[in-house]
Amino acid sequence: MEIGKTIGAVVMLFILLGFVTMAVLFERKVIGWMQSRVGPNRVGPWGILQTVADVLKMLFKEDTVPHKADHTLFKAAPILAFMPAFAVVAVIPFTPSLVFSDIAVGLLYYMAVSSITTIAVMVGGWSSNNKYALLGGMRSAAQMISYEIPLVMSVVGVIMAAGSLNLKEIVAAQADMWFIVPQFLGFLVFLVASVSELNRTPFDLPEAESELVAGYHVEYSGFRFAFFMLAEYVYVFAMSALTTVLFLGGWNPVFGLTFIPPIVWFVIKFVIVVFFLFWLRATFPRVRMDQLMQLGWKVLLPLALLNIFLSALLREVPFIGRFY
Amino acid sequence: MEKALAHIDWSAMTPELILVTAAALLIVLELLLPDETSRDWLGWLALLAVVGAGTYVAVHFGAATVDLLQGSYRTDPVAQSFKLVLLGGTALILLLSLSGGNREGIRARGEYYFLLLAAVLGASVMTSSADLVTLFVGLELLSISSYILAGIRKQRTDANEAAWKYVVLGGVSSAFILYGMSFVYGLTGSTNLFVVQQRIVEAYQTGYAPFVLLSLFLMMLGFGFKIAAAPFHMWAPDVYQGSPTSVTAFLAVVSKTAAFALVTRVVLVVYLQLIQLRVWEEIITPLLLVIAGASMIVGNAVALRQTNVKRLMAYSGIAQAGYVLVPLASLGMTLFESTLFYLLAYLLMTVGVFAVIMVVERDAEHGEFSAFAGLYRRSPLVALTMTLLVLSLAGIPVTAGFFGKFYLLINAIATQHFWIAAVMVVTTVVSYFYYFEFIRQMYFRPAPKGNPLAIPIGTAIVIGIGVIGTVGLGLFPNAVLHALGQLKWVEVLSVPQAPPGP
Amino acid sequence: MLMPVTSYLALSAILFCIGLYGVLTKRNAVMVLFSIELMLNAVNVNLVAFSKYGLYANLTGHIFSLFTITVAAAEAAVGIAILIALYRNKATTEADKINSMKG
Amino acid sequence: MWNGLPTWVTFSPILGMLVLLFIPRQRNRWLKWVGMAGTLPPLILAITMFVLFDPQSRGVQFAQHVSWIHIPIPQSPGWKLSYAMGADGLSLPLVLMTTIIAALAAVGSMYIKERVKSYFLLFLLLETAMLGVFLARDLFLFFLFFEVTLVATYFLVGIWGYMERERAANQFLLYNGLGSALMLLAFGGLLLVFGTLNLDQLLVRTSQLFADPEWMQGPLRQVIWGIFLCILIAFGIKLPAFPFHTWMLRVHVEAPPAVVMIHSGVLLKMGAYGLIRFGVDLFPPLVQQMATFLAVLGLVNILYGAALAFVQRDLKRVLAYSSVSHMGIILFGIAALNFSGLQGAVFQAVSHGFISALMFLIIAVLYERTGTTMIDEMSGLAKAMPVLSGVLLAGGLALLGLPGMSGFVSEFLAFLGMFKQYPVIAGIGALGLILAAAYTLRAVMAATFGPFLDRWERLTDTKAVETVPMLVLLGLIIAIGVYPQMLGEPMQTTLQMIVTRIGG
Amino acid sequence: MGYSANYVMLAVFFLLGLGLPLVAFTAGSLLRPRKPTPAKGISYESGADPVGDSWIQFNVRYYLFALLFVVFDVETIFLYPWATVYHELRSGVGLFTLVEMLVFVLLLLVGLCYAWKKKVLEWK
Q1: Is the pLDDT assigned to residue B82 strictly greater than 90?
Q2: Hey, which chains touch B, using 3+ CB pairs under 8 Å?
Q3: Minimal CA–CA distance to D74: which of A262, B333, A56?
Q4: To probe the interface with E, which of A122, A145, A218 has the most E CB atoms within 10 Å?
Q5: CB atoms C88 and E60 under 8 Å
Q6: CA B347 to centroid of chain Cα atoms
Q7: Distance between CA atoms of B186 and D381, rounded to whole angstroms?
């Protein structure tokens, strides 16, 4: 059992790597399509090997570390960024049986572990001893902590309704009604906050090329850089999965179409979320730093608190109450 | 949990509820008010709340002990009497700040009053707690509010420094207290003081004696910081000096009193049963006495070298903390009565002294001793009141300070701890020297200016209450003695009903 | 104490001592704050360990540690706020420069 | 109907204080007159008391007892502190002396030039406190009055003294503070052991305790000894007994003369009073064990004071050291532990009070005119100021114990008592008397006779307002010397009782 | 699946997360060229030579947000357990739970408004 699971974990790792490879390509293709251009199309049929080629290129790149950098931390930062990104996947229930670690405090675990990445970003920015990197790192940290609050608070409504922090039980609680409906406000806040947490457009300020060259990873090259990117895309995976679990009913079928296996339902919903994220990137311009912070504190946080209020109050209303 | 929270008799908590409501109201009003509106009436509101809470306590003084919230909250004699002192002190300090505080460079008036309320709320919770968790939460509410209060003049470097030192050393002391509490919990599996009381003896006898003692030492280390007893007193002088005078008065009076409530309750209740194993006799009493003696010696000796009045008061306060520890340490027969009497006296005289210091400091624009030079020529009445207050601090009849100290001393003699009694009286004599420095300055030195001091009416009232109280308590302490004497102090040490579960 | 708890106690004692050492020796004020946090967290280790392996194991320790965490956060927040004020006035976070009062 | 008398005596100076409060502080003349007048009510009342006092009665007279503070103690009736006043043969002469000296010192205060109002307010406060000390029958009350004298004297020395007044005031405060701290310890102990601080109850209870021959083996032995030693040191400092005398020298030199009159005349006697009242009377068996020590201490005081007085060049210092010497005689009287010894001690207290008051009054007048108190600089005063010089000479004679003056009676009685108990020590002590004659005459002669200095040309002799008090004092000194029974009669019964308690 | 097994899995995930980069870096170091020149070690500053150290004091505003974060983040440690058992409490204790919760969230909101009013939320 244990060994089987461990092998499963290794398989999961490779699935993730595969997902990232495809996701990068998919993203470029989707954006290209939306912006009426072609996207990668040279390497392999339909450009399918483009990402593989990129990774290979990075593998063969010379590894440079700036003389003035703090070497230990500089080298540790990418690892620190990737490790939690992968570790959070452990608690995601893909189907009733396919969950690697079914712990009681799954959601809390996710929130806690995912915030470690903030530290990695700061460490990377700081240890480079480069002004752009430092500024990027600081900004990124400020942004991530600002959005973590609404993110964390937006799911309180879900927890109240499900009465559990276990992700499997949360999914199970959505058998009748996905939480996206009663918790729509929470969902909106969660979505916006999660996009920001992912440092993705329109909230990709830490790596704003026009202002900060490349943000906290200016000095990174080769595989070290690759791991920062990898972490980002693994988070896209994890966050999309979490969104699916928390608000979209996880593996629960729609319209009673139970003959379709749960995993398929999960993947369908998951892909929609991922697509949505790419879509955002193609559509929105980047916001300014001050707008970003104001949105987080002055809009999302009050909304998240309001959502908690509403969740508690609406429960007292007849008929609707049972969904809360 | 079955005993629904809603069905609890909340009326016992009225003082705290008044305070918390007022505090919440205050901060909301502060939010809603335009910036340019005067915040003074918020202060009056705070005063009203404190007086209201105090009146409630006073009216129910001597009422039977009530246990609430599964025994974590109780209104026993310690709670009642300490609360009265705390609320009285806060009321005086609020009055003081209302009449003169806005000239002390405190810009955030609304927050100032709010923080005072929050602090006294914490203190009040502390006195009423019979559970380590609530005790700790109360303590921290008081401490954290005090940290901010100490640094509320944020545009001044000395205030920043004072607050910084306070927060760092306060944090360390909290950590020590908590560390000690964690062992208490580990040994007894409960945070309820009375459950702990019963189980700790068993733990002591079954081979965990070192841990029991460790918990005591760690907590005493932390408490030492909170009551500013030597050798954990380092923060006090800087904090007293850097804080606005009204806040210094608050720290000197309310914080210290609350900390004594904490020490008394925890040390006494938790470790009381160990008396049958001679632990008190052999370890706890000597430990506390050494702290007390060190405080007296260090406080009084270092005070001799001070030139800044508030620093001097800090060291004086350290010495006074030593005196007040004596009854607890010696487990004297009038432990509670004498401690409370002295704290009450200390409240009156200290608030009075700080009120005078505030006026003088503002007039001279500095806080050195020379600010008092020739005060007698300028304002004889102020000088006279200050003299009485200082004499009381020095423990000279016919003041409350004298009688209080005599009362404390008797505990030491009665329990045959002669050496601490000797230290007490000898250091008291040493203290004459620096307390009389006020008198030397006021009467023996020429005045740099001729004009009389301007004293706002509120400050005058506070000084008046301080002096009248000090002399009155010194001459006719009977009323207070009887009020304290009629309380059933035994209830403090044991639960009246069956002890609650873990 | 029961065997399993000893190692936790040792861990927390070590953490506590490191924190204390940091408070006493670190020159940077932020580090001092961190050290205090470390001390408080050492307590949490203790509490949680006792809550499972104490003489009377129960959940109270967990609840206590929740309060500890909150209080630690509040304390850190106040500490940082004071530090910001100090920095604005003095442009330093070196702890040994925060020392203008003597006596 | 006379039961309130001690209270009236004690608090009558407050009348003067009240009047003073309503006089503007610039009106120096008025203030001085009112201040002086303020000392009259206590004087009159004290004389009344003296007259009404029944010398035969064994109890406390004019006793008054009002319960005051009640300290509740769990499982016991608690402690009661009371406002108890009353006079007996021991306090009566001292009260009378206090009022007389205070009145005369008020006259001597006319040289005070600045802050007259505060001066007299404090002066009268001091008088109240002193009277309270002698009349209190409750130890707690006694202590309160005792401490008030301390504070008032501190101010009087610190504000109106000479150059080094602050140091003198501080030293005074520290020594006496220490003394009263020990006293407080002792009283606290008494309260705990005997459950009361009322003097009459204490007398009964200590007798009961000491009547039990087993008490020395009892657990109380150490405590009682501790209490006794504290009392001994506390009043030893006040007296002052060697080696606690340095503060007193400084106060003598630095304080304004009128204050020194009070200080040397009355305040030091509180030490003697305390020793007899709380040392001898409460702890007879303990005093007996300490008697030899006290006698030796007295001897040291006598010889040390006399020897040092001999080499002083400042008249004030001569008198200060002579006070040390004379206090040794009081110690002698106490150590003798017999009737004549105790009588001598009380006589000495009163007599020395008058004599030193006289001497310092003279010094006040002298200093006012010459601006100096150095013996060498005063040479030849007799020519310029015959009256003053005459009084000075008379005072000097009183000081050295010339028969026919009060000093002789007291010294005679004290030495008589001493010779009965410790002939050798008394013999050596007698040396001090010879020395006293030597240093007194040397100082007085050098100051008054000797070559006349030109700068004294324009000196005027004493005015009536100065002469009268001097003559009054001198008259009293001679009166006691000639007719000691005046003083001896009232105290006879009380002292007899004390001696009975001692078992002598 | 046992209680501890779940946590073992978490450890496995962490180890894998640590292992992959390590393996990748090791593989990279075998494959990639290594020709260091001094110029390669210079920090990047848009082509110009870098001036001074960049380990400077952070801007104070970052601390302000850190402070806010600490405060609000810690509130959630009370919100989560409370939210988890909310239903049980609600049926056990009654409306009091609701009121209590509203008060708690309201206090959070007041805190937020307070920071807002004091212009802490402005990014300058």
Answers
A1: yes
A2: C, D, E
A3: B333
A4: A145
A5: yes
A6: 8
A7: 89
Give the integer Cα–Cα distance in Å for B193 and B267: 10
C99 φ, ψ (degrees, to nearest 5): -160, 55
Residue B501 pLDDT level (bands cut at 50, 70, 90): very low
> Which residue of B162, B175, B311 is in closest CB contact with C103?
B311
Assign D73 to helix, strand or coil: strand
Q: Return the H-helix or E-strand segment holding D217.
A: none
Say if CB B269 and CB B493 are below 8 A apart: yes
Crossing angle of helices D406-421/D464-482, nearest 10°? 40
Distance from C-alpha of D223 to C-alpha of D190, rounded to nearest angstrom: 9
Cα D343 to Cα A46, B439, B450, D296, D348, distances in angstroms = 130, 41, 55, 19, 8
Stretch 32-51 of chain E: residues touching chain C, C-beta under 8 Å: none
- Tell me how far apart the alpha carbons of residues B408 and B425 are, in angstroms, rounded to a whole number: 11
Q: Does E102 touch chain A (CB under 8 A)?
A: yes
The long-range contacts involving B265-268, CB below 8 angstroms and separated by at least 24 positions, are: B265/B78, B265/B127, B265/B129, B265/B130, B265/B135, B265/B193, B265/B492, B266/B132, B266/B135, B266/B193, B266/B219, B266/B223, B267/B216, B267/B219, B267/B220, B267/B223, B267/B328, B268/B328, B268/B335, B268/B492, B268/B493
Could you tell me if B264 and B328 are in contact, meaning their C-beta atoms sit under 8 angstroms apart? yes
pLDDT band at E31 (very low <50, low <70, confident <90, very high): confident
Cβ–Cβ gap D72/B482 under 8 Å: yes
Q: What is the CA radius of gyration of chain E?
A: 25
Type of residue numbered B368: E
- 3-state per-residue secondary structure call for C3-36: HHHHHHHHHHHHHHHHHHHHHHHCCEHHHHHHHH
For D469, the token pair is 């008090």
**Type of residue numbered B204:** Y
End-to-end CA distance of chain E: 52
Q: What are the 10-residue block averages of pLDDT along chain D, 504 residues in total?
A: 84 93 88 92 93 86 89 82 90 93 90 87 94 94 93 91 88 90 91 89 88 77 89 91 87 89 91 91 89 92 91 89 92 90 92 92 86 82 84 90 89 91 90 89 84 77 84 92 88 88 73
Shortest CA gap E13–chain B (Å): 33
The secondary structure of D17-67 as a DSSP string is HHHHHTS-TT-HHHHHHHHHHHTHHHHHHHHHHHHH--TT--S-EEEEEEE
Cα–Cα distance, A126 to A73 (Å, whole number): 9
CA distance E13 to chain C (A): 24
Query: b vs e for D131-141, b when ≥16 Cβ sit within 10 Å of the residue's Cβ?
Result: bbbbbbbbbbb
Can you give the C-alpha Rg of chain C in angstroms? 17
With CB atoms and an 8 Å threshold, state whether C103 touches B208.
Answer: no
| Rounded-to-5 percentages of helix, strand, coil across chain E | 70, 0, 30
The H or E element containing residue B229 is: none
Give per-residue pLDDT as tens, B185-214: 999 988 999 889 889 998 899 888 999 999
CA distances from E119 to A85, E61, E113 (A): 34, 11, 10
- Per the CB < 8 A criterion, the answer to whether D406 and D400 are in contact is no
> CA B307, CA A252: separation in Å to the nearest integer?
77
Query: Six-digit token pair at D208?
Result: 């009961």
The rounded distance, in Å, linking the Cα atoms of D422 and D416 is: 10
Complex confidence, ipTM: 0.86
Report the number of secondary-structure helices (H) and strands (E) in chain A.
14, 0
Q: Find tokens 């910001």 and name the residue.
A: C84
8 Å CB contact of C74 and E78: no
Ramachandran angles phi, psi of B368, nearest 5°: -80, 165
**B310 — phi, psi (to 5°)?**
-70, -35
